[in-house]
Specification:
By secondary structure, the chain is α/β, with parallel strands linked by helices. It has one domain: 3-Layer(aba) Sandwich (Rossmann fold). It is built from eleven helices and five strands, in the order βααβααβααβααβααα. The model has no long low-confidence stretch (mean pLDDT about 95).
Length: about 210
């Protein structure tokens, strides 16, 4: 079974792009590596794990590279986590992707992927944020990300995809242990946060 993870720096997490897929350093050091370890620990021959996260990506960047990075790989399962940079880049650089455009382009990704790979299973992960050094001074502006998360849930229902909620889990453990235990800067997962995402992903995956 071929599983492909598609997203931004949260997925990328320092992966070595110069080496072969399905090798340790190709996973990065985040939630994809945790998932790969769990799945390969169950059956090292069953799963091929491909990380196609690229730091800084927005939904428009995913669409621009979807043929080379997704369709050409023909995965059985596609996991998408995207959204925080669509907001963050607007807050910091006036170069984000507004909510309507985000939804339109996400819909194109789902429509065209299902046309080309009709048997594919798609997991749409909820984008998330907490207060941290990257977000807290402008958290009201960052909180529009919660509307992007609602779009993800709506599209998952519309396209019969799986939706992975993450914000409520992160909120719970941030309250319990502190924001930086979950996300180092309000955006990027700390080791605990990465493991939390991986565990929630695996629970959903095991039901497919």
């Amino acid at each position: 079974m071929k599983i492909l993870f598609f997203g931004d720096s949260i997925t990328d997490c320092g992966r070595d792009k110069a080496i072969s897929d399905n090798t340790l350093n190709s996973y990065g050091y985040g939630f994809v590596r945790d998932i790969a370890g769990a799945l390969n620990g169950k059956d090292p021959l069953k799963y091929q794990i491909i990380n196609r996260g690229i730091s800084g990506n927005r939904i428009v960047d995913l669409y621009a590279r979807i043929k080379s990075d997704v369709w050409n790989n023909s995965p059985d399962v596609l996991s998408i986590l995207i959204g925080v940079n669509d907001v963050w880049h607007e807050v910091e650089f006036n170069n984000g992707v507004d909510l309507k455009r985000y939804e339109n382009i996400y819909r194109l990704i789902l429509t065209e992927t299902k046309e080309r790979l009709p048997n594919i299973k798609i997991i749409i992960c909820e984008p998330f944020t907490l207060k941290g050094k990257a977000t807290e001074t402008k958290f009201e502006e960052f909180s529009i990300l919660f509307d992007y998360a609602k779009v993800c849930k709506k599209l998952a229902e519309e396209f019969n995809c799986e939706f992975l909620p993450l914000q409520s889990k992160l909120d719970y453990y941030a309250e319990k242990y502190g924001d930086t235990v979950c996300l180092t800067d309000g955006v990027h997962p700390a080791p605990f946060g990465a493991k939390l995402i991986a565990d929630e992903w695996l629970k959903l995956f095991n039901k497919l």
